Amino acid sequence: MESKKVPLRHRSDQNNGTGREKRLKRKEILEKKKSKDELIKAASSDGYPLAAFPASRHYNGNGLSVCLESGSGDKLSSPVKQYIQNLLKANMEGQYGSEWPAEEKVKRREMVAPEARYIFIYEALSASSIETSTTFESERRLTDCVGCKRPLVGFVHYRFTLEEEVPVLYLYEIQLESRIQGKGLGEFLMQLIELIACKKRMGAVVLTVQKANLLAMNFYISKLRYVISSISPSRVNTLTGDEMTYEILCKGFDDEAKAILEEIG
User: Fold this and answer.
1) pTM for this prediction
2) CA distances (Å), origin 98, targets 103, 118, 208, 234
3) Going by DSSP bridges, is the β-strand pair 64-72/246-252 parallel, antiparallel, or unpaired?
């Protein structure tokens, strides 16, 4: 059967139409990427995200009273840097085991990055608690801000970034001194992190947890309803992923984030 020939003019029109569609598609992709980049930039430029949540700047419960302040990685004082290093080692060295020396170097670089955002936790210190404080706590009081008698008792380190082209708040660290753990503060801080993420129009909160840290895994998955992300090693490659010592967890806030980071669609 003889095929019907398409006139040259019509073929040219078809090619032009295809070309226009490609240009429009590319323009749409570039505009979407620009919009996401601007969203990340705007979120990162806010030096006082806690100002939007005045009621969440204080926590009182289970005999614990703390207040929260914002900070950034490029503005950390030397005492605060030392405090962060000490608390990370106290809390995480056992979790990482032989991997800790290498991991500690990575964390030291991460903590002072300009894009690093912090929530610092301060506690009112009574005279009686000063008398009973440990050596670590006594050293920690050196990190108190000038003219401030409140000791620093923990911190949260997070960043705004893109994961699989989804704008997310990535939680790098949530570290509390052992004596203030188990008092509901961790859940309070995670609720605040999620509020900040939603306020800044992020699609999800993403975080990394060591598999050996069973308490943390249970806290995030069972209590806070986070899930193992589709970008976690155990889901990316089931053959090699199980050899990795960590999981990436996430909680999506919109359909796009859930479809990409949780593979729920």
Assistant:
1) 0.82
2) 10, 28, 19, 21
3) unpaired
